[in-house]
Each structure stands twice: as C-alpha cells, then as structure tokens.
Design goal:
Layout: E1 7-11, H1 15-28, E2 40-44, H2 51-56, H3 60-76, E3 81-83, H4 93-99, H5 107-117, E4 122-126, H6 129-133, H7 136-142, E5 147-149, H8 153-167, H9 175-187, E6 192-195, H10 198-207, E7 214-216, H11 217-228
Helix pairs in contact: 1-10, 1-11, 5-7, 5-11, 8-9, 8-10
Amino acid sequence: MSERKKLGILGGMGPEATEVFYKKIIDGTVVSNDRDHLDILIYSHASIPDRTECIMCGKSDELWAILEEDVRMLKSCGCDYLAIPCNTCHYFAEKFDSLMDGHFINMIEETADYVAKRNYKKVGIMATDGTVRNNMYGDALEKHGIEAVYPSEENQKKVMSIIYDEIKAGEKGDKHKFMEVASALREEGCEAVVLACTELSVFNNNYDLNSDFYIDALEVVTTACIEKCGGQAY
C-alpha cells in the first residue's frame, strides 16, 4: 500500500450526492479493518448558491469567492487531495487545481480517461445546463478524439427536470423520462452515456442501472480518490 493521504471532499451539491459518494468510497476500498479506509474530511456546504444558475447568470465570481474560501479551509485542515462531487463545479477546475498545488482530483478528466481506455469514439452526456453549455465534457473528451453528444433541447429539459424537480427535491426520479433521453442518445450512435451530474449518480444509485451503457462519473472519481490517496480499490 502506498503512502496514505488525507482526502478533502467539498460537498453538499447536493447533500444526497455527497452521501452516495462517501458510501461509494467506503464500499470501493479493499479493507481488512477500519484502518485500511481513507482518512476523509467532508464539508457539506448545502447552502452554497446553485452552480448552474451562477455560471449562466454571470455570477461566477461570487460563486468562486465562496468556493475558494471552502477549499482553503479544507487545505488548512491538512487535506492533501480535493474532490468535489459536483460536475458543474468543475467549471473552476483549473483554479481548484492551483489552490491544491496540483492535487485536485478532476472528475471530468478522470471520466474522459476512463472513456478513452474503453476505446469509445462517441458518447452521450447527461448533465446540467451549466455543464452542457460550457462543453466541459466535450472539451475533455476531444483531447482523446472522442465525440460528445448532448441531448436535444427538448430532452435536455427532461434531464434538468430529473435533476432539479425530482432528485434535488428528494424524489427517486422518473425512470421513464430518463430512458427516453438515454434511448435517443443511443439512436444517435452513442456507444455509452456518461452520467455527468451527481444527481444522476443518485438516480443510478436509486435504480441500480447496472449496464455497461452507462458510465457514472461519480464511480470513476471514486476509484481515482481511493488510489491517489493510498488505498486499494476494487
């Protein structure tokens, strides 16, 4: 086992996604006793402004000021690595990485690497408007020669409804609505669909989609966190 490092998680975006992330880390770590698990400090900052709204309404500077303070707090508490279970928040990925001296575990880049290793050339992206309109996954995947396909305008509204009207409201999520979007992406020739919002990771946790067609970005970053912080991942 390599040298152990403390993981800082800036969560609360939303809280249920943060809970799912922590459980995935626990379940995904090979252990024989408590001490084999990672040392983790979680700050669930649930009151933080909505990321998509801030980014799309020109309030990104205000949002960054809050995030910067949070990251500095986690770093001052001895966190060696930082992970954020919110895809839209990765709008500030370069700033996070700079604050953490190169130790930000980037969920989008990790997922792009994962997709590339499976030799996919065309994948669908289900995410918030903030992630979609800033082409965060498209830019990351393009480096690997992979095409990112986004839902139609009508289907993107369904994705946002699942995320905001259902999962963030404490509901399980409409599987029929989800499958309509996923099926349309499959019909466009997508070899897989990336669940690129942690609320969709909660949806996946609720329904256990259990299909190679879906790539859950939260599961990908879970493995990266375990390995980078000195644990052993399944």
